[in-house]
Design a protein that fits this description.
Keywords: Signal. Helices cover about 5% and strands about 60% of the residues. The chain is built from one helix and 16 strands. With about 210 residues, the chain is mainly beta.
Length: about 210
């Protein structure tokens, strides 16, 4: 259990040494899940162990918070100030996923979380960024290309949407449906992206250039 979580943290630490992803980016080619194209630009800035992302596009303006893991930037976005991202490392041999998470309110800090269960029903044990523990429940349902998620922790409900990225499950979360998840694979001055919005079953695409 500890080894998997340590591996994920080490991947994050190694990736943080690369700063080429910071700064201004232009959307080179993008489309909504319904196939409609859009254009725009975004900026990325490193804050502690996380990344702030701000989009200005013809499809709307959004802000996000991200984690860089193994060359991929995973971002949870929203249109208000409450959103986050969690990256779970999966293990096919175990019904256990171990994750690292952050929110727009943590100023670059991260928490950790372990979920155990099957058939979309999970028990949650985690630690906040300040080290305090928490417990809760998580429900997940596969919907087309995405997963819909709902956490119940300390009487508070959080909704999320995510997808698989190799052996990682990434979920962006927030309140209502005004949130989503983005994955960018960054290679030099290019980035290949895909994304999901809250409640959606299909993915959009977003490729970047500098």
């Amino acid at each position: 259990m500890k080894n998997l979580l340590l591996s994920l943290l080490l991947l994050m630490t190694t990736s943080y040494t690369a700063s080429a992803q910071e700064g201004a980016w232009k959307i080179e080619k993008a489309q909504l899940p319904n196939g409609k194209p859009y254009e725009g630009a975004l900026s990325i800035s490193k804050i502690g162990n996380t990344y702030d992302v701000d989009w200005k596009t013809s499809a709307g303006n959004y802000s996000g918070i991200g984690l860089l893991v193994n060359g991929k930037l995973f971002v949870g976005y929203g249109i208000n100030s409450a959103y986050g991202i969690v990256v779970y490392q999966t293990s096919p041999a175990q019904q256990r996923l171990q994750g690292v998470w952050t929110t727009s309110k943590l100023n670059g800090k991260t928490g950790t979380e372990i979920i155990v269960g099957k058939n979309g029903q999970y028990d949650v044990e985690g630690k906040n960024a300040d080290g305090s523990p928490y417990r809760g429940k998580l429900m997940m349902q596969k919907t087309g290309d995405t997963f819909q998620a709902q956490w119940t922790i300390a009487g508070q409900t959080y909704n999320g949407v995510g997808f698989m990225s190799g052996d990682m499950l990434v979920i962006g979360y927030g309140f209502g449906q005004a949130f989503g998840t983005v994955e960018y694979l960054i290679i030099g001055n290019k980035a290949k992206g895909r994304w999901a919005m809250g409640g959606g079953s299909q993915l959009g695409t977003e490729n970047l250039t500098r």
